[in-house]
Amino acid sequence: MPSSPTLVWFRQDLRLADNPALRAAVASGGEVIPVYIHNIKGEGTWAPGGASRWWLHHALADLEQQFQRFGVSLIIRSGDSLSVLQKLLTETGAEQVVWNRRYEPAIVQRDTQIKTVLRNAGKKVESFNGSLLHEPSRVKNLSGNPFQVFTPFWKNCLANHQWGEPEKAPSKIKGTSLKISSETIDSLNLLPKIKWDRTIATFWNPTRAGAEKRLADFVASPAKDYDTARDFPEHDGTSRLSPYLHFGQISPLEAYARVKASPHGETKSGQRFLAEIGWREFGYHLLHHFNHTPEKPLRAEFERFPWAPDPQLLRSWQKGRTGFPIVDAGMRQLWQTGWQHNRVRMIAASVLVKHLLQPWQSGATWFWDTLVDADLASNTLGWQWAGGCGADAAPYFRVFNPVLQGEKFDPHGTYVRQYVPELAKMPAEWIHKPWEAPAEVLKAAGVELGVNYPTPAIGLNEGRDRALAAFKKLRS
Question: Is the separation of the CB atoms in 388 and 301 below 8 Å?
Answer without folding.
Answer: no
